[in-house]
Amino acid sequence: MHPKALIEACATLIERVFKFDHPADAVVARYFRENRSLGPRERATLSDTVYTALRQRLRLEWLARSGSGSKWRRLAILAFPGDVDFLKSALTDAEKTWLDHCHAATDADLLAPHRHNLPEWLASAVREQLGDEFDDFVASLDQPSVLDLRVNTLKKKREAVLADLRAAGLVCDPTPFSPVGIRVTGKPSLAKLPAFVQGDVEVQDEGSQLLALLVDARRGEMVVDFCAGAGGKTLAMGASMRNSGRLYAMDTSGHRLDALKPRLARSGLSNVHPLAIAHERDERIKRLAGKIDRVLVDAPCSGLGTLRRHPDLKWRQTPETVAAQTALQRSILDSSARLLKPGGRLVYATCSLLREENEAVAEAFGAAHPDLEVVAACDVLAGAQVPDPERLCAGEMQQWLRLWPQRHATDGFFAAIWRKKP
């Protein structure tokens, strides 16, 4: 594609994404379906430009004010990755001069919002928690997210899978915390990789792997993944159960559960039972009341822990949407607690950075349920052979799992654990 046409395509796509009425990855995927003639390099450039514009929105919009022409073209020019000479071949002389001035701008020329590129409500909430570490957190959001794999221990051990992946040409190492994780360098295609096709590995962020370890599902138990989604943690728990017992994968979206089916087929698991429910008070849930050994509630949340992967979320979420999520989270927790048998374990998890969705929900739930006692996440991780579990936990007696991208190179996660008293 000619450079001028590529810039215009980038501008068109940025304009669509910046309506923020749909997730950015869905908007980009739809654009690619509508323009099937685009080659791999053009698609990569378009995607990189859009995501740079999302990550650095406030800074780029401030710089764009000094230019002329369409706002979307200016943002496309400022966010365009790669060779500057290639980019300038598509620009007018005035645009070239303007771009040089923009490139000369330093952090000293910028206000704080232009440096952190977060809406002020979110910046304040995170800064309050991190203090002097806030700048490190902001810098981590501009780093590409890592590619982590979870080894399917039902089929192979991690050392054997590492050898297979390296023989296939991948550069990879064990994850620093998860005993069943592998971190891959770069973004290689996995679709035809034998280890992936055979179900020896699944793509799963290390933080998500740790959530499944907190459940500690065991052979022969009755286990519920209450908000299973596409089932990454379901598969991890099924392997932990050694394909025995009964594992219910529940979700209000049949479409998401359908996405579990091919993964389930690769995994070799036969103890997983997908169950589409209407809501958290569905009659099918009530039939299981008092019968379940372990429940995982990976609750619907703002998703702000995944900003490295989904930078549009910081512009699509608001304090009002977060408040609506917390009400749903409390309702789901109340319903899921009824499932537990005496001695049963409940794990509440989010991929959020916000206290409102994390500690505040956990504390309110715990106070309302005197029949439950807190289990320290640090102790559970230590029992799962996770090295340095103290680095992963927070709160009094380190009872909560708390992961941050700048500290742990994972998505942002929170988890709390309770046990039903005998």
Question: Can you tell me about this structure?
Answer:
The chain is globular, with a radius of gyration of 23 Å. The longest helix is centred in the last third of the chain and has 19 residues, at 319-337. Strands 5, 6, 7, 8, 9, 10, 11, 12 and 13 form a nine-stranded mixed beta sheet that branches. A four-stranded antiparallel beta sheet has the order 2-3-1-4. The mean pLDDT is 95. The termini are far apart. The chain is α/β, with parallel strands linked by helices. The protein is built from 21 helices and 13 strands.
Helix content percent band: 40-55%
According to DSSP, the number of beta strands is 13
Low-confidence stretches: none
How far apart are the termini? 68 Å
Radius of gyration from the alpha-carbon trace, in angstroms: 23 Å
Summarize the biggest pleated sheet: 9 strands, mixed
Strand content: 15-25%
Mean pLDDT, nearest integer? 95
Shape designation: globular
- Number of helical regions: 21
Computed structural class: alpha/beta
Which helices and strands occur, and which strands form pairs?
Elements: H1 3-17, H2 24-34, H3 40-55, H4 57-64, H5 71-79, H6 84-88, H7 93-103, H8 112-116, H9 120-130, H10 134-141, E1 147-151, H11 158-167, E2 172-174, E3 181-184, H12 194-197, E4 201-203, H13 206-215, E5 222-225, H14 232-240, E6 246-251, H15 254-267, E7 272-276, H16 283-286, E8 292-298, H17 313-316, H18 319-337, E9 340-350, H19 359-368, E10 372-375, H20 377-383, E11 393-394, E12 400-403, H21 405-408, E13 413-420
Parallel strand pairs: 5-6, 5-8, 6-7, 8-9
Antiparallel strand pairs: 1-3, 1-4, 2-3, 9-13, 10-13, 11-12, 12-13
